[in-house]
Amino acid sequence: MIKGARTESALEEGIKGTRYAFKNAEKYPEVFRFVKPKVAAKEAFNVKNVGTKVAMAGIAIDTGIDIYNDIKSKAEPTKIAADAVVDVTFGAGNVAASAAVGAWAGAAASAAAGAAGGSVIPGAGTVVGAIVGLGTGFAYTFATESFKINGKSLKDAAKQLTKKVFDHIAN
Is residue 144 a part of any domain in this protein? Predict the structure, then answer.
């Protein structure tokens, strides 16, 4: 039995039933995006979700600022394209990783609460999953922007490599 079934918040999320089998996870993404990492990562790109719209806006802003700065500095077209491709790719990776890890943590917290005789706080697994997912997003950004390879962040190294590939294709 799903705790909180048929509550207003569950119905708003599209969760109408009280029992869902894990083997049918792909049929019920509105339920399993909270507990199955693969479904959560896939659902993180469903444009019907408000969170997805916010994440996509963040990716668009990051990419747009980079394109603007490249154009302002009269960068080569291959650099502009490479920077945009890498910004979108790393942004999408951040969204997917955050959703998957958040779902995993939420499922673990819900299972622990269930094993302990139920949750004192309704939706504790969802809250834990959201906090862990947010932390994952920060950690992902920190890792891709701070760790250095030959003096460049992972993201900048990817941009440089992508530009080399684009230059090779263009020539």
Answer: yes
The tens digit of pLDDT for each residue in 23-64 reads: 665 666 656 556 556 666 777 777 777 777 888 898 999 999
Structural domain boundaries, residue 123: 33-170
Distances (CA, A) of 142 to 101, 139, 154: 16, 5, 10
Specify the pTM.
0.68
Question: What domain count does the chain have?
Answer: 1
Whole-angstrom Cα Rg for the chain: 20
DSSP class of 27: G
pLDDT in tens, 112-143: 555 444 444 445 555 666 677 777 777 888 88
Separation of alpha carbons 26 and 104, rounded Å: 16
